[in-house]
Structures are given as C-alpha cells and as structure tokens.
Specification:
The protein is mostly beta strands and 415 residues long. The protein has strands at 60-68, 76-85, 88-94, 101-106, 116-124, 130-132, 136-138, 142-146, 152-159, 167-176, 183-189, 195-201, 210-218, 223-225, 229-231, 236-238, 244-253, 260-271, 276-284, 290-297, 303-312, 317-325, 329-333, 338-344, 354-365, 370-378, 386-392, 401-408, 413-414.
Length: 415
C-alpha cells in the first residue's frame, strides 16, 4: 500500500511601499523575513497544515531480514523468506548472507501491533525436494534465519588440546537422529588431518543434541574408549583424555652391593571409573637402584598395585606380596623398620707389627629366616672405619657374633 500526499496552493498578491510609510520590518536585502505567525491580521491556518510526525498514521513496522549461512560451502541454493503482517506480504530470496533485506508496513490497530508472521523455504543444490518451515510469530525487528534452522546438519570437528606425541589418532563416532534420515558415521583425527567437516541435508530443523564417543589410539599401542556423550555446540573440540601426568617413584631398599642382586617389580595402574589401566615391569639393581614411572592419567582416582620378587646374592628368592597403594613413592626390597648398626674400627692396631686383619660378623634370626654375614679386611693403607647394618624384624633380637684373624709381619697369625 502506497500513500502519496501532495498539497499545491497558488496565490497572487501585490504589496506597495511608499515613502514615509511606517514599516513593520526593514525591507533591506540582508533583512530577515518575519515568521508567518507574526504577521498581523494573517490567518495562518489558511497557509499551512501542522502535522505530528509521531502520529499513528505515520508509524511503521520495520524488520531487517538476513540468512546466516555460508552459501558457498553449504549445499544451499537459495532461501526464500516470507513475511506477512495485516494485509501486507513480503517475499525475499537470499543467495548471499551479506545482502540483507528489509520489510516495512504501516502499523495496524491490532492487540499486538509489532507482531508479524514469517516462514521460509530452503532450496538445496542437487535436490528436487525443498524444506518448508512452519509459520512462526515474533516481534523481533532483526530477523535472522540461522544455519541450524535450514534443515542441514553442519558440524566441524577439530582436534583441541590433543597431544599427538601420546595419542597417535582419535577415532570419533557420531550419531544424530533429528532428521528424516539418521546420521551414524565415524572419522579419524590425526596430526596430519586435525579437523573434519560433517554436512548432511536432514530436511528438518536441528532441534536436538548429537551424540559422540572417541576411541584414542595411543602411541605405545594401547587403546582407550570413552562413553557416549551428548553435545549441541558447534564446532566440536576433541580434547586430550588425560588431565594430568602421574609419577610413581620406585626405590630399592636393602644392601644391593652384597646382599641383594636384583629386585623385579610388576606395577599396574587402574582407574575403574574411566575404564583405564596401564602396566609396567621394572628391574632394580646396584647399577639402577631407582626408577620413575611417568604416565598420563584421566583423574586422581586411580590405584597402584605392585608385586614382584627379590633375588638374593646367595641364590634365594623372596616374594613381594601383591600390595595396593596410593603413594607416589614405593619402597621395595628388604624393607626394615629397625636397623642394627655396628661400626668396626681399626684405630688401635699397630701396623708396624700387623700386616692384615680380617673381621667376620654374623647375625641370625632363625624365626624370620635372616642370616646376615659380613667380612671386613683392614690393611695399613685401608684402615678407615666400616659400618655394618642389618635390618631387624625382631627388635628384641640385637645380639650378633664376630671374630678376627690377625696376620703378622713375621708370618704368624692369631685368631
């Protein structure tokens, strides 16, 4: 509806000025003409009409219309938007998101004068069918039809904070049942291909969340799977499953030089809540008395279980029972709470007469299968004090035996 209002009035008049006449204003060329309302004897209503710009007659509904979709990358040929208000209808065709349109109409005398109705039709590339939306009511002055409303499932999946030094690849399984044809697919993210774009015509508005789960293939050959998760955001970031790095220190206890030959330890980390586990085997010796096991974890709720064997230098083998712990440092071997410490000194020997002294020490605890011995040799140039330590299982049994053999310079000996 178009309203054109024009008013034309033509009048002829003459005004004569005479000398010595009293003037109402100075008729100089630089003078200012008086307002028509200041002229005496003039009926201003015969010369103009005063109009209120805010009169309901001039009030309009103005709606900006735009389609928020990438027409180049999405399989969309065009989007037709239809707006109706009172007895006025506007139809717009969009093929470019950067070219908005505007719908205007004079406000009607209705209960909701700013409410209008709209619907849209999506035409797809290479498809004979089109998607026709239902009719909506709104009072928005900026109408934007988004990509989720266009009957297309468009999702970009990217590798978030994945550590590809630990994770060789991440296989993503995704399903969506909100269209006429359900989506059930899977794809793989790698260091070389860190993103994947999924586009499919569903002929329905996207009105529900999608589901996905991830299978992580670790660099060391292990696999880790997550449960199905619901999400509605876009893009979807696939992040590293591990939230922290855990360090477990393994320390050997006991005399690795004379008593213990090797300590074999089997370790297992198990996070039952996330169905995640790791195993590791460690061998400790005099050359390597400690080792740190560093591995990624999903949460702090995991437990360490260890077991193993202690191989003694006398050929016997002692078992390390299976033990569960949450400690970050594990002590294995011959762990004793109390020690018998003996210091042997050769300070009072006359090395001008004595050539060599051999000291033998022995400690026995038959009830706990302990039989510790130590031989110490002193010479004139090797006479520093020597400390002998024995772990005690029976704190009350602290007695030990010793003997010494003196070899004199004249070839004699004394025990």
């Amino acid at each position: 509806m178009t309203r054109d209002i024009q008013t034309h009035k033509i009048a002829s008049f003459s005004n004569t000025y005479t000398e010595n006449m009293v003037m109402l204003f100075g008729p100089k060329p630089q003078g200012i003409l008086p307002a028509i309302t200041s002229l005496p004897g003039v009926d201003v209503n015969q010369h103009f009409i005063e109009i209120d710009a805010d009169d309901p007659f001039f009030r309009t509904l103005s709606v900006g219309v735009q389609v928020n979709a990438d027409f180049e990358s999405l399989p969309i040929h065009s989007v037709e938007v239809r707006i109706s208000y009172d007895d006025r209808v506007g139809e717009f065709i969009f093929t470019d998101p950067n070219k908005p349109e505007r719908f205007q109409a004079f406000l009607a005398e209705v209960p909701k004068p700013n409410e209008f109705r709209y619907s849209y039709q999506v035409n797809y590339k290479g498809e004979a069918r089109a998607f026709q939306s239902e009719e909506f009511r709104t009072e928005e002055t900026k109408l934007v039809v988004n990509v989720d409303d266009l009957g297309i499932f468009d999702l970009e999946v990217t590798a978030g904070d994945l550590n590809f030094d630990q994770v060789r690849s991440a296989q993503v399984a995704l399903r969506y049942s909100g269209g006429e044809e359900p989506i059930d697919t899977q794809f793989t993210l790698t260091r070389e291909v860190p993103r994947h774009t999924l586009q499919k015509v569903t002929f329905e508005r996207r009105h529900q969340a999608y589901e996905y789960k991830v299978t992580y293939f670790m660099a060391d050959g292990r696999e880790f799977r997550t449960d199905w998760r619901r999400e509605s955001s876009s893009p979807l970031s696939i992040n590293d499953p591990f939230t922290a790095t855990k360090t477990v220190g393994l320390r050997a206890a006991g005399d690795l030089q004379r008593d213990i030959e090797l300590i074999f330890v089997d370790l297992e980390y198990r996070d039952a809540a996330n169905d995640y586990g790791l195993t590791k085997a460690v061998a400790l010796s005099a050359a390597k008395p400690f080792e740190d096991w560093v591995f990624p974890v999903i949460s702090d709720g995991g437990l360490i279980t260890y077991s193993g064997q202690v191989k003694m230098r006398n050929g016997t083998v002692q078992a390390i029972p299976e033990t569960e712990t949450t400690e970050s440092t594990i002590l294995v071997g011959k762990v004793m709470e109390r020690m018998l410490q003996i210091q042997v000194l050769a300070d009072l020997i006359d090395w001008t007469r004595v050539k060599l002294v051999t000291v033998s020490l022995a400690y026995e605890d038959h009830a706990n299968a302990i039989n510790e011995t130590r031989d110490i040799t002193f010479r004139a140039n090797e006479s520093m004090p020597v400390t002998w330590e024995v772990g005690l299982k029976d704190p009350d049994l602290r007695s030990y035996r010793w003997m010494a053999i003196f070899f004199f310079a004249d070839g004699t000996r004394h025990e």
